[in-house]
């Protein structure tokens, strides 16, 4: 399962953090910091997988943003990588050529989207279309 | 008053990059004010807090306000509240209690969107309490038709199981049901949850294999789900070999054809785990992995190596042909790929290519940095020491490698390298001479001492010093060696290394003395010792040595480390003793000296200490002395402060055990006594003994310590007697044969009585994993219910109802008892007693419950044409009729026509066919059909079996095949379950004119007793107990046939026999059927 999903920019500012395993605030801060240090130092030619403590970090960089996902070592790395890509595609379709500022100012919408795609550390809905339909529906609620 | 909007806040934060914290604190203060306002203001404030929380600020103080916003009715506000809760609540948040009810309310809300929010939130903040309280509501929610809610409910179930494992058993059937859901996304979510669950306890989910297999073969395009299914099978297959066989085809298909690499990779992983004995499949996997490794994509390369590593663990040699490919990966710029490639090296190394592989790895060592360097060192040693050096044929080469590794300054593997030196030199006797020479070089190397840190490279000196001392018979220039031992800079080394230096300088000196005095020193194990220079050691050399020692030891006798000081003083005392006595005693003193160190050393098993068996009658947990009475000084001494690392896995192991101290301790004591005669000798003694016990560097009976060896070393039992080691013969011929034969001593020492098993190392079951311990294959019991949280008044009402029901039952039972009382006036007394009992337990069981007939098909015919099985059931309301159901299978390879099943001619007269399913007609080859006949038995007394006839006309021949089917009709079918009161029974027995018969069956040593008999009679013959004697040895039984024949029995358990006295109103019944039935029921073998 996914333990957490982080979206950070190159300076290490968190743009999204979703924790599926309970950590306390101090630990969350520490983890975010460590993850940023790890992924930011990796060259683009490197693999997108990093062993991290007893888990694995699957990350991918889109423009200035790092999308990182902490998963169990038994999980399929490519599956996670594709899941990240799916999420980014949904964001891109929803915001229309998404950029960092979209995520900053609409952070609550991003959380809504992530809740449509992932839940409880599992990929729940792999269909981009269904997610977008749901978002459309939710946005129009009073 | 204008409040900051969310956009204002975000802009503000972006504009205050330099003093962000101050700005945010200012905003938080504003928000605190806003939270006192109306709900709209609160909502905005909470949304802003959520953003601030994401940046890493604490907002736990606002938890209560968040719950308030959660409970608003407006969707947009509620959503903001729930988001804040999901992001900031955790197990320690106290208001979660308050949230429970809000979440439940939203679950059950008519508005599905509220349930949606509640589910999202619960998936994030689930605590054990929430899980217990809400599990039942989630199950209720799973009845919904809305896909998006159902998907969430199924996924959240996993969280519930994690936090509240007790929910798994009662909730699992519902989850299982969702695997059959027509909506693929629901199936996918269920698969996700089961996949996670199966990792913890695969056996529980084996029964799901057929369903999962169906999903696997029917799904084509949902790769996400296929990956999870294949992963799920990886958990299941190791527990069910048949499943693995079945999976081979579909997985081979996917591997060959799937366009999705992630799915391909998952299939390969599953094959490796579950189907690794299928060689063609493994070959296919390896081929596919090769294409991945050769791929330009670094990710695929990495995964390919990872999977190859998994194969290597099972088939170590399977990957060796890809050696070049893997070695190339060592050059990759990505460190994770190099890591994986290094992991693969052990699988592709052989005796022949180890030199090439090592050269390649050593190249990398020169350019590597940091932790990668350490990793390479680790791998080199792992590779070389594998299987107790099975690949190494030239140990001088290996010593050189280790020496080369010792040149690396910044490593944390100093101890490892040191232990390798020790191990190799101890195990391979022929390399000792070479090793000792190299070690002297190491001792002289100033770099090793430049920056001593614990576990740094200076640890190598520990090994070097020990080897030079222990094998000082190979040391030709003792002065030189002693000078390097006693360099002033040695004093900056860690204490345990210095201690070793001290003692081993004495060893070198002793050997020099012995040689100079012409002692007989025989090197028994190695004829190749280079002794050509031995002649140079003369009395002058010894004097020189003595001078070096006495002049340089001074700084060590004042060492700040107690252990070093003690040893230095000890050496000093011995030297003094030597100088004083050498003139008077001459040779004998050097003999004495050398005898201190002549014990043979063997490697000790790493677990030897642990395996020392506890002597019988010794309780380790019991105090030997009362702890209060113990001297505080002693307890301090017990700390093993001089042991490097000080833990159980310490590589430097001490071979001294308590008993062996006796050998030389008197010697030490006597030398100490000279100095401390005025002291309290008794206390000294105690102190010393305890120090000896704790101190690994103390001289013991065997004189010296041995060292550790790699974990892979085999285990040998401790030899009963130790052969004594004699030291070098002067003038022995040097004959160095090439190639050198290196013999590896692979044995290790173990304490006597140690067990061979490694059970203590077996992986222990994780007791904390409550979810993994739940067994789903047991049927649900009354305890497996979900906790339901209801209103107090409901609970009270329910309790009252339950109490009322019990009361009612009691009244009824009492009434029934009374009515029976009236019926049976004669037994008034007894019934009163039983009525009381019955009232307490259950309503009196006046009519016996109808016996459940489990339909069982019994084989009747199985020949080349037909397979026929039958089943007999009673026809409701018709006591004399029985229904015979048949299953008929055409086993022949031709079609049959005019298939007919009828009662045979001879039986037609006695029974009456009431109804049948008619002619069967045509049966194609291999097909099956069913047929039934309802037969009325007019005379049951002779009918213990009935014959039917199946006639059929095969297509190839004109002859009709007749197949007789003989069916035994058990007598039980004709008995009507009757429970008879005692008085009636007596009446019948007296009134009726009955035939008497009897039967005796041995109890076979008590295997048969009254309770078994009555149980069997009831179950198999439908005969009920009328009355049972309290002693349990006598009972009366009664039954009524469908033709109103009475059957009465008195059964006694006496003298090793069960005797049946039977009375029936139908004589033939008794003689032909009943006795036979009883004999069948209780076979007296």
Descriptive overview:
Chain A: It is found in: Cell membrane; Membrane, Coated pit. Chain A: Keywords: Cell membrane, Coated pit, Endocytosis, Membrane, Protein transport, Transport. Chain A: This is AP complex subunit sigma. The complex is a heterodimer of chains A (142) and B (1085). Chain A has 142 residues and is of the alpha+beta class. Chain A has helices at 25-40, 77-95, 100-105, 107-117, 128-139; strands at residues 2-9, 14-19, 49-52, 55-62, 65-71, 118-119, 122-123. In chain A, the strands form two sheets. Chain A has a five-stranded antiparallel β-sheet, sandwiched between helices. In chain A, strands 6-7 form a two-stranded antiparallel sheet. In chain A, helix 2 packs across helix 5 (128-139) and helix 4 (107-117) crosses helix 5. Chain A is globular, with a radius of gyration of 15 Å. Among the domains of chain B are: 1-88; 96-200, Leucine-rich Repeat Variant; 350-470; 473-607 and 715-728, no CATH class; 858-969, Immunoglobulin-like, CATH 2.60.40; 973-1081, TATA-Binding Protein (2-Layer Sandwich), CATH 3.30.310.10. Helix content of chain B is 51%, strand content 10%. In chain B, the strands form three sheets. In chain B, strands 10, 11, 12, 13, 14 and 15 form a six-stranded antiparallel β-sheet that branches. In chain B, strands 1-2-3-7-5 form a five-stranded antiparallel β-sheet, with no helix packed on it. Chain B is extended and about 130 Å long. Chain B starts with 5 loop residues before the first helix and ends with a helix. The model of chain B is unreliable at 633-676, 699-738, 758-765 and 841-853 (pLDDT under 50).
Short structural description:
The complex is a heterodimer of chains A (142) and B (1085). With 142 residues, chain A is an alpha+beta fold.
Q: Detail the poorly predicted runs of chain B.
A: 633-676, 699-738, 758-765, 841-853
Give a short account of the largest sheet of chain A: 5 strands, antiparallel
Rg measurement of chain A, Å: 15 Å
Strand content of chain A: 25-35%
Can you count the beta strands of chain A?
A: 7
From the helix content, strand content and strand pairing of chain B, which structural class follows?
A: alpha+beta
Query: Which range best describes the helical content of chain B: under 10%, 10-25%, 25-40%, 40-55%, 55-70% or over 70%?
Result: 40-55%
Largest sheet of chain B: 6 strands, antiparallel
Q: Report the span from N to C terminus of chain B.
A: 102 Å
Count of runs of 4 or more consecutive helical residues of chain B = 41
Protein name (chain B): AP-3 complex subunit delta
Family (chain B): Belongs to the adaptor complexes large subunit family.
Subunit structure (chain B): Adaptor protein complex 3 (AP-3) is a heterotetramer.
Organism (chain B): Polysphondylium violaceum
């Amino acid at each position: 399962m996914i333990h957490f999903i982080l979206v950070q920019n190159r300076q290490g500012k968190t743009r999204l953090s979703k924790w599926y395993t309970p950590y306390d605030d101090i630990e969350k801060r520490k983890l975010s910091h460590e993850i940023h240090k790890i992924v930011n130092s990796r060259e683009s030619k490197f693999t997108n997988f990093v062993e991290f403590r007893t888990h694995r970090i699957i990350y991918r960089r889109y423009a200035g943003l790092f999308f990182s996902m902490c998963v169990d070592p038994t999980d399929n790395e490519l599956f996670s990588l594709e899941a990240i890509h799916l999420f980014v595609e949904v964001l891109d379709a929803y915001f229309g050529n998404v950029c960092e500022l979209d995520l900053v100012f609409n952070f609550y919408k991003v959380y809504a989207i992530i809740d449509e795609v992932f839940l409880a550390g599992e990929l729940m809905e792999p269909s981009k279309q269904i997610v977008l339909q749901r978002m459309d529906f939710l946005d129009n609620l009073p | 008053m204008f409040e900051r909007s969310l956009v204002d806040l975000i802009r503000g934060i972006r504009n205050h990059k330099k003093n962000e914290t101050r700005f945010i604190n200012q905003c938080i203060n504003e928000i605190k004010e806003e939270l006192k306002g109306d709900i709209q203001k609160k909502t905005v404030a909470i949304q802003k807090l959520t953003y601030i929380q994401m940046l890493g600020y604490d907002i736990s103080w606002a938890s209560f306000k968040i719950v308030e916003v959660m409970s608003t009715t407006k969707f947009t506000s509620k959503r903001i509240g729930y988001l804040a809760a999901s992001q900031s609540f955790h197990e320690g948040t106290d208001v979660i209690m308050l949230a429970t009810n809000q979440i439940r309310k939203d679950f059950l809300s008519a508005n599905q969107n509220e349930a949606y929010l509640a589910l999202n939130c619960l998936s994030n903040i689930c605590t054990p309490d929430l899980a217990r309280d809400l599990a039942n509501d989630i199950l209720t929610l799973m009845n919904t038709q809305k896909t998006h809610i159902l998907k969430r409910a199924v996924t959240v179930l996993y969280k519930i199981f994690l936090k509240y494992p007790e929910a798994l058993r009662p909730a699992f059937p519902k989850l299982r049901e969702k695997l059959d859901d027509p909506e693929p996304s629901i199936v996918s979510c269920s698969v996700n949850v089961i996949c996670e669950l199966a990792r913890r306890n695969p056996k529980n989910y084996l029964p799901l294999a057929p369903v999962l297999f169906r999903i696997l073969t029917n799904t084509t395009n949902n790769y996400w789900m296929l990956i999870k299914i294949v992963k799920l099978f990886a958990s299941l297959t190791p527990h069910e070999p048949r499943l693995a066989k079945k999976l081979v085809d579909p997985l081979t298909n996917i591997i060959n054809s799937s366009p999705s690499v992630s799915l391909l990779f998952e299939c390969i992983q599953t094959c490796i785990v579950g189907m690794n004995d299928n060689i063609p499949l493994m070959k296919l996997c390896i081929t596919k992995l090769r294409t991945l490794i050769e791929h330009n994509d670094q990710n695929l390369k990495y995964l390919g190596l990872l999977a190859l590593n998994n194969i290597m663990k099972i088939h170590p040699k399977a990957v060796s042909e890809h050696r070049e490919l893997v070695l190339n990966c060592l050059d990759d710029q990505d460190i994770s790929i190099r890591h994986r490639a290094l992991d693969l090296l052990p699988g592709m190394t052989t005796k022949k290519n180890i030199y090439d592989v090592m050269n390649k790895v050593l190249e990398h060592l020169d350019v590597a940095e940091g932790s990668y360097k350490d990793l390479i060192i680790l791998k080199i040693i792992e590779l070389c020491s594998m299987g107790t050096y099975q690949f190494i044929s030239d140990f001088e080469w290996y010593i050189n490698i280790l020496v080369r590794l010792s040149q690396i300054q910044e490593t944390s593997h100093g101890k490892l390298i040191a232990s390798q030196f020790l191990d190799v030199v101890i195990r391979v006797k022929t390399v000792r001479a070479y090793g000792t020479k190299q070690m002297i070089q190491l001792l002289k190397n100033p770099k090793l001492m430049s920056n001593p840190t614990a576990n740094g490279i200076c640890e190598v000196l520990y090994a070097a010093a020990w080897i030079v001392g222990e094998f000082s018979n190979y040391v030709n220039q003792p002065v030189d060696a002693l000078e390097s031992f006693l360099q002033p800079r040695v004093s900056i080394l860690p204490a345990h290394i210095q201690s070793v230096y001290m003692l081993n300088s004495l060893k070198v000196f002793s050997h020099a003395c012995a040689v100079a005095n012409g002692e007989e020193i025989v090197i028994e194990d190695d004829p190749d010792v280079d002794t050509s220079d031995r002649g140079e050691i003369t009395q002058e050399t010894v004097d020189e040595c003595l001078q070096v020692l006495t002049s340089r030891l001074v700084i060590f006798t004042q060492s700040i480390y107690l252990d070093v000081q003690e040893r230095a003083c000890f050496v000093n005392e011995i030297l003094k003793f030597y100088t004083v006595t050498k003139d008077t005693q001459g040779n004998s003193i050097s003999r004495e000296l050398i005898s201190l160190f002549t014990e043979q050393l063997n490697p000790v098993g790493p677990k030897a200490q642990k395996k020392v068996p506890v002597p019988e009658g010794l309780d380790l947990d019991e105090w030997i002395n009362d702890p209060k009475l113990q001297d505080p000084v002693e307890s301090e001494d017990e700390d093993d402060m001089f042991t490097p690392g000080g833990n159980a896995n310490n590589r430097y192991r001490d071979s001294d055990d308590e008993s062996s101290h006796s050998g030389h301790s008197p010697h030490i004591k006597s030398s100490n006594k000279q100095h401390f005669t005025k002291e309290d000798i008794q206390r000294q003694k105690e102190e010393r003994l305890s120090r000896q016990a704790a101190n690994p560097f103390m001289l013991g009976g065997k004189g010296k310590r041995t060292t550790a060896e790699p974990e892979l070393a085999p285990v040998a039992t401790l030899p009963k007697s130790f052969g004594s080691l004699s030291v070098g013969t002067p003038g022995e011929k040097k004959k160095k044969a090439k190639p050198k034969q290196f013999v590896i001593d692979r044995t290790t020492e173990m304490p006597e009585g140690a067990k061979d098993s490694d059970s203590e190392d077996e992986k222990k079951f994780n007791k904390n994993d409550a979810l993994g311990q739940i067994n789903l294959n047991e049927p649900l019991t009354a305890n497996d219910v979900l906790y339901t949280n209801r209103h107090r008044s409901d609970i009270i009402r329910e309790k009252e109802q339950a109490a009322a029901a019990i009361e009612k039952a009691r009244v009824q039972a009492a009434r029934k008892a009374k009515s029976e009382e009236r019926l049976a006036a004669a037994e008034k007394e007894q019934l009163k007693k039983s009525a009381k009992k019955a009232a307490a337990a259950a309503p009196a069981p006046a009519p016996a419950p109808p016996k459940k007939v489990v339909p069982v098909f019994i084989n009747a015919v199985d020949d080349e044409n037909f397979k026929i099985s039958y089943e007999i059931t009673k026809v409701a309301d018709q006591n004399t009729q029985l229904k015979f159901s048949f299953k008929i299978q055409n086993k022949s390879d031709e079609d049959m026509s005019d298939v007919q099943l009828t009662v045979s001619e001879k039986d037609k007269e006695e029974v009456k066919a009431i109804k049948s399913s008619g002619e069967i007609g045509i049966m194609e080859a291999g097909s099956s059909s069913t047929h039934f006949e309802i037969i009325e038995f007019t005379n049951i007394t002779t009918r213990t079996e009935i014959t039917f006839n199946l006639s059929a006309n095969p297509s190839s021949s004109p002859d009709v095949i007749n197949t007789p089917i003989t069916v035994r009709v058990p007598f039980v079918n004709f008995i009507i379950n009757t429970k008879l009161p005692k008085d009636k029974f007596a009446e019948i027995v007296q009134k009726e004119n009955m035939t008497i018969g009897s039967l005796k069956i041995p109890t076979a040593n008590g295997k048969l007793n009254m309770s078994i008999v009555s149980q069997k009679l009831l179950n198999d013959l439908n005969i009920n107990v009328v009355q049972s004697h309290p002693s349990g040895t006598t009972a009366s039984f009664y039954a009524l046939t469908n033709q109103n024949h009475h059957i009465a029995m008195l059964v006694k358990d006496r003298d090793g026999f069960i005797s049946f006295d039977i009375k029936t109103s139908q004589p033939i019944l008794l003689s032909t059927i009943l006795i036979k039935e009883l004999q069948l029921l209780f076979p007296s073998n």
